[in-house]
Amino acid sequence: MRQVNQVKLGEEFIKSRAHREMHDRCLWAARMRRDAVAASIPEWEEMRELASEIKLHTLSNLDFYLEQFTANAEANGIHVHWARNADEHNAIILEIFKSHGVKVVTKGKSMTMDECGMREFMAKHGIEINEADLGERIQQLDNQRPSHIVMPAIHKLRSDVADLFARKLGSDRDIDDPHYLNSVMRADMRKRYCQVDAGMSGVNFGIAETGGIVVCTNEGNADISANLPPLYVATMGLEKLIPRQSDLPLFIRLLSRSALGLDMTQYTSHYHHPRQGQEMHLIILDNGRSERLSSPDYWPVLKCIRCGACMNTCPVFRRTSGISYDAIYMGPIGIVLEPSYDLYKYARLPYSCTHCGSCGDVCPVKVPIPELVFYWRSVVVDHNDELFTHNAEETLAEPILESAGNLAKAEKVGLWALRHIPKSIAESGLNPWAEAHDDPEPPEETFRQYYNRVIKPESDKDTPKEQS
Amino acid sequence: MNQQEAKTEILARIRAGKPALHPLPDVPMYPYPGNPTEEFIRHLLNFDGRAVRFKNRQDAIAWLKTQPEMDMAKMKVYSAATDVEGNFGEDQLTDLHNAHLIDTCVAEGELGVGEMGSIWVTDRSLRHAACALLSRRLFLFLDSNDIVGGLHETYARIKLRDNQYGSFYTGPSATADIEAVHITGAQGPLSLTAMVYNVPDAPEPPQLQVNPNADHSVWQ
Amino acid sequence: MKVGFFVPCYIDAIHPKAAISTYELLKKLGLDVEFIERGACCALPELDMGFLKHACTLEKGIAPLVVDKGYDYVVVPSGICTDQFRSHFDGVEQTPEVVQFRKTVMDPVEFLHDVLKITELPGKPSFPHRVALHNGCHSLRYLLEARPSELMIKPFDKCADLLRLVDGLEVGYATRRDECCGFGGTYAIWDASCSGQQGRDKVSDYDRNGFKYVTSQDMSCMIHQQTVARKIGLDLKMFYITELLNGDAQP
Predict the structure, then answer these.
(1) Are residues C109 and C139 in the same domain?
(2) Host domain of residue C6
(3) What residues 338-367 of chain A have any CB closer than 8 A to a CB of chain C?
(4) Are C187 and A320 in contact (CB under 8 A)?
(5) In chain A, domain spans
(6) How far apart are CA C116 and CA A342, in angstroms?
(7) Which residues on B lie below 8 Å from A66 (Cβ)?
(8) Which residues in chain A are closer than 8 Å to C150, comparing Cβ atoms?
(9) Contact at 8 Å (CB) between A407 and A414?
């Protein structure tokens, strides 16, 4: 299998100035709105700490809460299923669909289902699944993964969407007004709501105490999927639990404010029972989560509530887009999650980070992303034999050592190079640094040389005087 | 597939590997400052919702009847609200998919949230959530005495488990998925109007309050 | 008060002025400053890439130079290296002396602001210009020398406090005041395209705001930004903060 090279893919996005600038502007605006609404809540930092503690507690007692949740959900009339991995997850749902003769499904956004490759799997079995979220639908029509967990098509220009809709939905290619494009999508989707066999969605929170699930969207697509057809299937990663109903407002108050800088998701919906005449199924998915829980350095990653705030703030993500990570989860949380699914494929992702620390400070549940980046880099180095054809230290260090302008090794090679290597060579392809940077002006002398020339003789002069 | 086996194995793995127990803190009942009704309307307008204040419920019903969305000659109106008649009946909803034919849906809001401008609705107050979700215009009654300041307090008044479906509706369906341009009417209603009654200082005649910067699409 | 002076490799080689200004300022403040001659690499690049074993070896080499040498404080004119010592120096046994070193290792801003609590600068330096302050990410978010814009805590900014002691100096910020400039140590080499783009965005931000001068407590950011600015032809001059505080910065 091929190893994902985020740097290379990101470079393509960076080079498309219109895309990059739009992407950066939109996400930075979300970050700025987040700052403004967070500042309006005096207890914001206290809430982050509490939310983090509640998540840590829940994870440290997860078996208890999963059993409590399941017992309550079953008592509420919800069919609860357990899936150890993606294959089991998909097989369970297929079985449910087959027994109900399901042909057409509408679906709200679910990262967890994306993680299982559920849609592609169902397509193979002749079940048509229509994404109801606008962004997710755009990506589905374009045969591309979401580029952001909250705004799946945010890397596309309106003209890209106009072009796509013209090809797939027969709209006017020359009109790229987002309102028009939305109405094209709306008209297409509402036609599909005339006959739906089943609805699907992900889950934002499961409440152990009440045995119900909470699903948050802005479009209402998950609500339509859940409230219209006679069958509703939801998937929940097993880390999504919170203990009590009274914990919920804390998370709801943090979620949308962190994600988009909005006080609330437009549809914040709670499901505790199936509708009369409806069947409701919930699949609890492990898929590596229980293993992550057992890693002493890594388990806090399971606190993540998938708000996407880390993506909006990440300076790398904003300039390279989620597409460049070629993964289900992207951006800061992606680079620390994906290696746990496939260490070889995603071994390079933890290096797509400047360590600026912004993601850790913006995270509503204090996932220590910067620390987890260090963690994964050390794991990658440790596994060098399996991950690389030759020594990982060399592989990873290669571009560093090759570069004459490298600051870290400057003492050994840099200064010499600055003085002796002609510009034409220093700026050749061998030296990635030179593409964006001019050479630093070499100083007359190093501090050490200055010290030996100026400071040391002075203090040597001083010393005997004091002694005399 | 053996479900019990998967469950047992997952739980065993968790028990074997879970970290040492962390304490569970209590969540304070953080209040939200300001007059709940005013805050509710301010936030609802921010979400492109519309609001009208009334002295009492009768005034609200009277105002609603004058709205073009309630023109029974032209519109299909579904009402789950007491004292308001529609022309789209239960008999037409034996297949819920027909809900997409509804122009106007009227229902009761159970609680309002000052902090967000959200309205708590349930399967009881909506009767069929599908109608509220697939109609083009949604009108919700809300007693100002049921508007709470903060979200913590609001949840303290709700028994989640007693409701099949319960949701905070905060403005009409919206999306910002194309270049982050805010658009109302993504999938569900194009507009949401809160009719807030029992407001003693409600203006006479009633005034429809809208966000002057609201998204008014020319394409819908 | 005896102060050990640790000069990181890149400062020594590329911008020794940062070390010279810091050293001289500390001397003017009447401190007993001892240059740690054999000190060089703090092991950050190795740790940054995940080479824990290498980092560990380097840390073991550094420890005898800085731990239990009778220093009340060790001053390191570099935020990233200070953070390396304070937050990551785990390759050596955590003896009480090592713990003490990690507590008393500081960058000049912390040392001047929190330990010496200076209210005036020796020699009354003057720099009658608008200067953009770039709080380096490590100093900002790991050493907490100012309020990161993400955190909803009371605003403070230690660098700005110190810079206001320079006569005529007006402190300002880029519009995106604390977005990362893209240096990130080895990152600048690993992902030169994105690092370069971040750098261009950062220096263009200063330029749009009419700044001619920029300063930071982290010279690595300044070297990155300076060379990016020069590459795209922007007239910006970058200083290490002590160059301004010691009156060495030339317009």
Answers:
(1) no
(2) 2-115
(3) 350-358, 360-362
(4) no
(5) 1-40+308-389, 41-291, 403-468
(6) 51
(7) 10-11, 14
(8) 35, 313, 358, 361-362
(9) yes
